[in-house]
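Researcher: Next entry in the queue.
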Amino acid sequence: MMKTMMLKRAGVLLWGGLVVTVWACTPRIEVAAPEKPITINLNVKIDHEIRLKVDKELDNVLSNDSGLF
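Model: Structure for this entry, 69 residues:
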């Protein structure tokens, strides 16, 4: 009877130690909202139209009718 009582206590202590060890090793994750709002600056310069104009002017200069070549 005494031996089974000691085995039960040892089992409880073992499981208790295991639970405490696992609980102590789990990382704590904290999620907090930022104090300032997130801003995204989009400074984009679009020059697509200018390139098309230059390409058309080059086509006119380099055409067969221009007499350049």
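Model: The two ends are 113 Å apart (CA to CA).
Researcher: Noted, moving on.
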